[in-house]
Amino acid sequence: MSYAATERFEVEPAPGGLALVQDLLNTIGVGGPVHPDLLADVDHAQRWLDAALEQWAEATGSGPPHEIVLTDRDLPRLRTLRDRLRGILEHRTPPDPPPGPAGSLRLDLTADGRIEARPEGTGIGWVVSALLGEMYEARRDDTWRRLKTCRYEKCAVAFFDRSRNNSGVWHDVRICGNAVNLRASRARRRQQA
Question: Does the model's pTM come out above 0.70?
Answer without folding.
Answer: yes
